[in-house]
Amino acid sequence: MKKALITLFIATIISLSCIAQNAVDALRYSQLFTGGTARYMAMGGAFGALGGDFTVQSSNPGGLGIYKSSDFSFTPSIHVGSSTSLYNGHTAQDSRTNFAIGNMGYVFTRRLSSRTSQPGFKYIQFAFGLNRLNDYNRRLIMEGENSSNSLLDTYVEFADGIYYQDIEDNRGGMYGFDLYPAWWTFLLDTTINSSTYSSPIPAGGTLQRKTVEQWGSMNEWNFSFGANYNEILYIGMSFNIPWIRYFERSTYSEIDIADTIYDFKQFNVNERLETRGTGFNFKFGFILRPADFIRIGGAVHTPSWFNMRDYWDNYTESEFDNGDYYTQSSPSGYYKYKLTTPMRLQGSIAFLFGKYGLISGEYEYVDYSAAKFRAYDYSFINENNAIQNSYVKGHNFKAGTEWRSGPFSFRAGYAYYNSPYQAGINDGSMNAYSGGIGYKDKFYYIDVAYVYTVSTEDYYFYGTEDIKVNPVVNELKDHRFLVTLGTRF
Q1: What's 50's DSSP letter?
Q2: CATH superfamily, region 2-150+201-488
Q3: What's the predicted TM-score (pTM) here?
Q4: pLDDT tens sequence across 277-336
Q5: Distance between CA 394 and CA 190 in Å, rounded?
Q6: 50: which of 21, 80, 273, 361 is 20 to 30 A away, CA to CA?
Q7: Domain boundaries in the chain?
Q8: What pLDDT digit, counting tens, does each position of 117-175 carry?
Q9: End-to-end CA separation in angstroms for the chain
Q10: Segments of 230-293 assigned E as strands
């Protein structure tokens, strides 16, 4: 069963068709690691029962009801995404650094009654601004020797039985992104007859290398409303417009290391992907304060409905020992489709110790297998089935604490995101550790935070039911440095 699941997963993420959308894309845009203010991040994001922070618009908008004054905040951040890979005994490392805006927003608060003893709504709040939901910046180098098989073996397996002229003349068709470039760079050739193929890969094996550079982000515009009922119940809702910008460039290479009589020297497959999308969702939440020392929160996030568009292309290069060099580009791929990401449920609790400090915790439920692709001209049946069979329900936990001394606050947090994969397919769980310091006077505040996250995932260069390749084990680490500047009035 484990082997069957792994084979299914590889088949969904490595396709020889011209459709680029797959289960990995659905997961990428379904996983959220909200990055907002430095205070929110320093406490592990466990703010669902606390409120009073701009980022709660993207987690529990009921937290807006805590505000009793207007607020403006701005959070620049630096993100360093690093990777260490292990493939067939060989280790490689790389990293990418980028500057980002973690949040920027304004909360307008209005007091409804001057008589504090009067029951009813005391304050209402309107807020709008920006929160970052995910960061895709990373660079990976993965390499190692393989004497068992080659990427070209998957091409041969796919091509066998296809008349060679159907490949040779198919640049704009279903073979245009793989078999066609391989044919015209002499990485694929006929043998005994015109429908049986071979590759020039030497029997002694090759050095396989892949470099991947990813950048972009998911951000969200928030438009929210909150209210405070009698200092006991705080409610809120938000209308949100998330948008996606994801870019990826990669080069997969195989280099002859056998030094045999074969003519082959090396080949490269260079790929480019650009994804853009805009969607919308609604979020509803509350915080209940049954006593001064405890707060209980809950929130519901509807699915996000995205209109997506992908652009992709590749070109293949081959080089031989006799000095011959060939290159062939694919057509430019473009496709518009729709993506629905899963709904989310959150529950939270916080304990407050007067003006001295607090401890908070939060739980989030999300079913990653519920993501779906749709399009007017393609059914996505195989891709949606693969999503259902590859992913599981997510149970994410966050905890945070804050302790005050005069105008200073000292914070720490931890978050755990369980693996989204079916057992036996991959790991993918993530741990996040955070801390920070804040300073606040009557009108102004400044907060700083550092967040360190680590996860491990397997990456497959290629694979079919009959052609197995060992996974690359990638350890992914993120370092985030944030500073929030804010004022209340």
Answers
A1: T
A2: Outer membrane protein transport protein (OMPP1/FadL/TodX) (2.40.160.60)
A3: 0.89
A4: 999 999 999 999 999 999 999 999 999 999 999 999 999 999 998 888 999 999 999 999
A5: 48
A6: 80
A7: 2-150+201-488
A8: 677 888 999 999 999 999 999 999 999 999 889 999 999 999 998 998 899 888 888 88
A9: 61
A10: 233-256, 264-291
